[in-house]
Amino acid sequence: MSEGDELYSKILKASLFFFIMICTLAYILKLEIPRSITILIPLITGMLTLFERWIMHHTLDHNRRNGEFFYDIILIGSPETTHATCRQLHEDSGIGYEPIAVCPVMLNESDTSSSPKNNIQ
Fold it and tell me: Which residue segment(s) compose the domain that 35 sits in?
């Protein structure tokens, strides 16, 4: 399940929880709340929230296609992985990251020790 699907699932669960809380509080406090309001209010708020999130998602996606609302990042790693990651980020603009710099890191083959060295003199 993607992050967007998980968000919509959470909104539906919150609407169901809201409905249960209204029913529980109405019963405990002996409130005379009409059943239509008890059912319609959580249903309408859940649907409006889902619609609002859907609109915001599509607006953000549209703006990212136009080069807006990206997080600037610095890629650090081997040349192969940074190149592959940079290519993936440019192909899928929905991720929301814009690489602004690349810092390639290479393993020195002549140095066989795995401990860090202090090269400050």
Answer: 1-68
